């Protein structure tokens, strides 16, 4: 459903990224609606049934939400290209005046436990703005922990965007490619050093171990790797979303979820998985048109159904 930002970036560099932000938003709306009406990459035929079944809404309402999600994906592409190749003064102005953070106390409370933090990020809007958002200082006077972002692989375009993000932001980011043989060890070392490890939780990597969960009332799944570490070492998990409303980017950290709070007779791993996905589901229900990972729901439901049928747990 999401447009290919890799092939679209040169055109955006030459034209759209230099337009005023209001004009960019209008262009994204028109392009998104055109893409939706043409059903490009099944953004209508595949997503509408998923929205209808997940939210229990009418077909008309599902079409509206799916169209909003398609528009949002074009806005995401423009935002990414703006950061990569747009006017630096425009990006700095957006970062200073239209980039907000909410719930920082939740991240602070999780970091204060001294066990590191897993931030589970879902793609609602431009995550790169969240990466460079200027955060208020922690109230206890401690420095913001170092961030380590788990990425599928070392993609040249992604790294170029992140390099630009570092120029505008105030935090350094390390990257942990999932295709590296050291990925698991690097994640564990980052956690042990008290760092924040950011994991994208919308998609299920190929051949990844998974944990069964319920998602929108159906059997689903989520990646097991970080959950296993969180369950074993009591590492708190904080859900994170970035939404764009009225041209303002708001990054929000939800309340920490920790295996230490699980009931004594409960298995910590599935208990954590259910609560992380429940937090994500609440965020999606609050802003369904802003979530442009609806296509991942089909995969999660499909794997979840297979796990339920076979009786496997990972």
From TrEMBL:
<dbReference type="GO" id="GO:0005886">
    <property type="term" value="C:plasma membrane"/>
</dbReference>
<dbReference type="GO" id="GO:0009247">
    <property type="term" value="P:glycolipid biosynthetic process"/>
</dbReference>
<dbReference type="GO" id="GO:0016746">
    <property type="term" value="F:acyltransferase activity"/>
</dbReference>
<dbReference type="Pfam" id="PF03279">
    <property type="entry name" value="Lip_A_acyltrans"/>
</dbReference>
<protein>
    <recommendedName>
        <fullName>Lipid A biosynthesis acyltransferase</fullName>
    </recommendedName>
</protein>
<keyword id="KW-0012">Acyltransferase</keyword>
<keyword id="KW-0808">Transferase</keyword>
<keyword id="KW-1003">Cell membrane</keyword>
<keyword id="KW-0997">Cell inner membrane</keyword>
<keyword id="KW-0472">Membrane</keyword>
<dbReference type="InterPro" id="IPR004960">
    <property type="entry name" value="LipA_acyltrans"/>
</dbReference>
